[in-house]
User: What shape does this take?
Amino acid sequence: MARIIAGIGSRKTPPEILLQMEELGALCRELGVWVRSGHAPGADYAFEKGALDKALVYLPFPNFNSQNKLLTKQVVSLPPAEGKNWRKGPDTSAVMRAYHTIITLFKEKFIDGMDRQHYYASYFAVFGSSGADIPVDAVVCWAPVDGYGMAKGGTGQAVRIANAAGIPVFNLFKTDVGEVEEFLR
Assistant: This one.
């Protein structure tokens, strides 16, 4: 069975790390390892550029991040939201609430929008979307960490989900790229 990683991270990933992520994506392509991503600018797109036809991209809605050309035909997209109906598609609130650290501080309207984008990119990058998909073998990301060493933002959501499932996480904010290369080989 082919190996799979989630190649994700902050939109503010430093350029030198983006280059490493693109090279890791290329190594995945060379080794036959699939890369799941959310097509966000920065880290996600860097992995996609390296992995090309070995990338599986999850979009929270059609044409998400259309300024970056899709480099693969392996794309899964939720149907468009209609008006305020963010939940057209999978019901994601239970997982969003289970893994977000400060969810109780957010208003319901904000949760609905965040729910669709963060959950979809984060959860599906880790577990796939069809129910028949298998979890990734690892999450490879770049995200700043808080005072407790936890990744922040949407990437932090994916890291918390992976940690709960016992999936290894390589955060290039604090992990050397050589460790990831060794894991992939």
